[in-house]
Design goal:
It contains four helices and no strands. The protein is mostly helical. The longest helix has 25 residues.
Length: 95
């Protein structure tokens, strides 16, 4: 478990760094999305790490964790589309 948490922390730091450097280079709001998504996932992960008993026998921390990961998934997909369009239009992928 400790190794998984350590790997997650490193990944979150790297994505935040990517987000900040990409935003500074492009000056577009969507370039900051990975950092914001990381913050959202960290908050959702707190539900997974700080478990609590089910409310009325059906709503527990694990179910809320799954609900909390729906939004970032859609948001991340939208970021990938915008980033790909930027790469195709820009010089980064041209020979």
């Amino acid at each position: 478990m400790a190794a998984n948490v350590a790997a997650g922390v490193v990944q979150n730091i790297l994505w935040t760094w990517f987000s900040v450097t990409r935003y500074r280079a492009l000056k577009k709001s969507w370039a900051a999305w990975p950092g914001l998504i990381v913050a959202w996932v960290i908050m959702a992960m707190s539900l997974e790490l700080m478990d609590f008993p089910p409310v009325r026998g059906m709503l527990d921390a694990h179910s809320l964790w799954h609900l909390g990961t729906v939004g970032p998934t859609i948001w991340w997909y939208n970021f990938l589309i915008k980033d790909a369009h930027q790469d195709i239009a820009g010089q980064r992928l041209k020979a």
